[in-house]
Each structure stands twice: as structure tokens, then as C-alpha cells.
Amino acid sequence: MNNNAVISNNANQDNFFGQLQRTRFQQFTESFPDTSLAPAGWIIDYKGELHQWNGTKWINLASNYVHPDYPLTNNPFQTDQTSGLLLLSQILTNSSGHVIKVAGRNLTNVDIVSIFLNDAIHSNTFTWSSDKIRTYIENLIGQSLTGALIYQPGGYIPSATKGSMTAPSPITSATIKTGMVWVITANGWVGNEPVSVGDHLIANTDNASNTTTNYQIIEKGIPDIVDATDSVKGLIQIATDVEAITGTDAVKAMTPRSTKAVLDAKIKSKTWQIGDGSSVTFPISHGWNTMNVDYTCYRNADNRKINLSCLPTSANDVQIDVLIPLTPNEYRITLTARLD
User: Fold this and answer.
1) Which terminal residue of the chain has fewer beta carbons within 10 Å of its beta carbon, N or C?
2) pLDDT value, residue 145
3) pLDDT in the model for residue 298
4) In the prediction, which pLDDT does 311 show?
5) The organism sits in which domain of life (predicted)?
6) How does strand 85-93 pair with strand 99-107?
7) Quick one: how far is CA 222 from the chain centroid?
8) Is the pLDDT of residue 126 over 90?
9) What are phi and psi of 215, to 5 degrees?
10) Is there a contact between 49 and 62 (Cβ–Cβ < 8 Å)?
11) 80-85 contacts: CB < 8 A, separation 24 or more?
12) What is the rounded distance in angstroms from the CA atom of residue 4 to the CA atom of residue 323?
């Protein structure tokens, strides 16, 4: 076997409950290994039997515990339930704590209603009927309309004269409610405040009439927009490809084209086919002038992802090592690097 084909994991490994297939524990045939730096939980194969280091001594895992069998005298849950709701009502254990009896009872609709249904009060214990829930929601929606932003069709045409205000529709002030909102459809004035198409007029009190202090104006027009910053919305200039690649300009924005230019300049990736029927070591030259190279490898026959040893040997080269010779073009390996 190729002794260079070693993958080192300097971290915990989480297989998300996947199976370990075609694997072996480290074997020792003469004596137990040194445990001076070993944490509890290390498992080895010692003379054909699994042993675990518990932090103090080696435990022979071949001495398996056989759980005693305690047949249940009654188990209503061992067959399919065809009607009703079967609840666990009793569990009996012996002196060793093993379950020896399980009992249940059917919960009916009458039981559920009598235990939980109560339309009279708010409670964490009871529930309401569907009629009670519907009535409550309808009342809540009705109450929430007061103070909500309520769009008014037709828009709002402001006054053409500074210092005056045209009353919005509906004309009758008593019908204007807090939260009514109009989209301004022409340039003009709301009192001494200039407004433009697209601004919004919002009533902040009932019976607002045409009193300017009873309204809020939002969404100012383009002339009021300032240069954008990381905390203020506004106008912004597009960066060139060179500026995007340099990455020092803090006030210009990137486009899809400049983003692609940055990725092409900073991220390098290329795929090679490896395997010649005899070799277990494969030098690859990428020419990217970096030691920070990562890899992804797949077996061509079934597209299975393969972990192998990938060692940078210089700023422009890596060495691939495997345990057994590969057939011609058996693997495809993609190298990826991020350049500074």
C-alpha cells in the first residue's frame, strides 16, 4: 500500500448518522498503545477484539451485555388502532425498572370537548369552539382597521399655490380617518411643503380636513435623494471591472459583469482526469502561485465523491496520493483556489 495516502482530520467528524462501510479499526497485536495523551473513548482492535479506553483502563467490548427479556402481560399498543384515540393510561415496572405491563384507554370526542372546550374565558388550559374563534377574529380585524394604512383610490392632486392645501377626497372631513393614504398624482404644494408625483399623503388624525398639520408626507422625490452610503439610501455610481477587482473603492457598486470579472480573477478552478492503471501518486501543476488549494474528487464510473490525499508541494503544484492504483481516467479531480 502507498504510505503517503493518508488523510489527516484535525477536527471532529460528523457523518450525520451515515454508515461506516469497508472500514477497519487500528490494529495492535503485541501490546496496547500508549495512552498518555489519549482521551476517553478511543477504540482499537487488540488481538482480534475491540477495546475502548475509558480514560483509566482498556475495556474489552467483546463482553457484550445481553438485555433480559420481560414479556409484557398486557400491551394494547401492539396492534393497529382502528377507531378512537388510544392513550397510555398505565405503566408497571418490576424492581429492576423494566416495563412489565402497559395499559391504555380510548379517548372519545366527548372526553375531548368536556376537558378542553370553554368559550367563556381566555386560558392556556381550554380551547374555543370554531364559532367563538371566528367571532373573535372578525372583531379583531374590525378593530385593527383603525390606524391602519388604508389606500384611497383616485389619488391626490395638491394645491398649485404655496401656503394652501387642497382637501383630499372624501371631501367631508368627518369621513377622513387616521391612516388613510393617498398617492400624489401631480406636482404642487401641501401648505408650505413641496410635493411631487409618487409622494404619499397620510392622515395622522381623524377628521383631518385640509389642515396641513394633520397629514404626514413620505417618499420624497428624486431631487431630495443624496449619495448612497452604508446607512443611507441614495444614488450610486457603477464600478469598472478594474475597480471591482482592486476592491478598494467603498462608494461604487458592482454589476453582474464586474462581479464575474472579480470571480474570474480571484477564483481559479480546473478539472483533471487521473489514473493510468499503475500509479498511486499523481503530480498536478496548476500554475496559480498559491499554496491555498482545495480539491473535489469523483469516481467517473458512478459519480461517487472520493476523499483522498491532496498535498501542495509548491505554489504551483499539488501531489495526489491514493491507496491502490487507479484504472485509466478512473477519477476526475477539480482543484480550486482563491487568489489574494
Assistant:
1) C
2) 54
3) 93
4) 92
5) Bacteria
6) antiparallel
7) 37
8) no
9) -130, 155
10) yes
11) 84/108
12) 8
What proportions of the chain, in percent to the nearest 5, are helix, strand and coil?
15, 30, 55
Do residues 101 and 73 touch, judged by C-beta distance below 8 A? Answer: yes
- 339: cell is 487568489
What is the per-residue DSSP string for 29-64?
Answer: SSSPPP-TTPPTT-EEEETTEEEEE-SSSEEETTS-
Which fold would CATH assign to domain 265-338? Immunoglobulin-like (2.60.40)
Lookup: cell for 244: 471591482
Q: How far is CA 294 from CA 66, 136, 262, 303, in A?
A: 47, 60, 19, 19
Nearest Cα neighbor of 212 from 172, 146, 159 is 159
Predicted local distance difference test score (pLDDT) of residue 191: 92
What is the rounded CA–CA span in Å between residue 192 and residue 139? 41
Quick one: pLDDT at residue 68?
Answer: 67
Every domain of the chain with CATH number 2.60.40 lies at 265-338
Classify 109 as helix, strand or coil: helix
CB 43 within 8 A of CB 61: yes
Strands 27-28 and 43-46: parallel
Phi-psi sector, 179: left (phi>0), alpha (psi -120 to 50), beta: left
pLDDT at 176: 85
In the beta sheet, which residues pair with residue 44?
51
Q: Which three cell numbers stand for residue 28?
A: 495492535
Which has the closest alpha carbon to 106: 91, 89, 84?
84
Residue 60: helix, strand or coil by DSSP?
A: strand
Give the residue, 174 or 212, on which the prediction is more confident. Answer: 212
Mean pLDDT of the chain: 83
Strand pairing report for 317-321 and 309-314:
antiparallel
pLDDT at 7: 72
Under the banding of pLDDT at 50, 70 and 90, the label for residue 271 is: very high
pTM exceeding the 0.85 threshold for the entire prediction: no
Instruction: Quote the CA–CA distance of 41 and 53 in Å, as a whole number.
Output: 6
pLDDT by residue (tens digit) across 48-68?
Answer: 999 999 999 999 987 766 666
